[in-house]
Amino acid sequence: MxxxxxxFKIARSFGSASSSYDTSARLQRYCGKHLMPWLPxxxxxxALDLGAGTGFFTELLSSRYQQVIGLDISKNMxxxxxDNRNSSIHWLEADAYKIPLQDSSVDLVYSNxxxxxxxxxxxxxxxxxxxxxxxxxxxxxxxxxxxLIELKSAWAQVDNDQHVIDFIPESEIRPLFDGTNRKxxxxxxxxxxxxxxxxxxxxxxxxSLGASHVPKKQGKxxxxxxxxxxxxxxxxxxxxxxxxxxxxxxxxxxxxxxLSD
Length: 261
Ligand SMILES: C[S@@+](CC[C@H](N)C(=O)[O-])C[C@H]1O[C@@H](n2cnc3c(N)ncnc32)[C@H](O)[C@@H]1O
What we know:
Shape: globular
Radius of gyration: 19 Å
Bound molecules: S-adenosylmethionine
Mean pLDDT: 94
CATH architecture: 3-Layer(aba) Sandwich
Strand order of the largest sheet: 3-2-1-4-5-7-6
């Protein structure tokens, strides 16, 4: 699948979830709030929320900074954000690979749980560095390898298809943030284990977040009944004594500074 088609499908998948997203976004809220202590304290700044989604964190940024831009590839996400958030925010429907802003025009780029959707990731990081002013900060969170390991291994018992997106390892992400014009100032890895009543609960949550598009999946549409039953049976090996189904999310967050040329 071409990168353009893939991004169109990601946008469509998130777009279809714009009205259900906020009620399901427990991981996203946790990770986004976790980035707050890293935000600069000055308020005369221009901030960009990259992959703003429904704009929950864009609005928080707008209560701190003079000028705030929320950018997302999904028209529906942006429409939801426009209808529900502070009217002072400037919204941009655009791709993180081609940010429609001038070089060195932004003091802060905040991005919560968006860059795991970007492959190849280095091009997006270069684009972030292009729009940041020297001395500007990129504050981000993402998901790395090991995320949804239970779901991945349960599906691996059923077929060879890909049912969970590829998350890159921390060892591949870190070098992207250290270069001639950038430096990783601070980083943190956290395992977050969310609890589900059953596997259907997990699948429904992913769908209502718009996070169910898997670019490299061969088979089209939903799994057949037999495959689904086999997978859920296999997932039971992770069942906790309390009857809860866990799902692991490996979050990696950090602060990168753009160095002067
Ligand atoms: C998991 S949501 C996170 C939304 C928001 N940051 C939050 O914390 O709730 C990921 C968002 O990234 C957007 N996105 C994915 N790929 C993108 C791209 N290439 N350019 C811009 N936005 C993108 C999706 O449309 C979606 O709204």
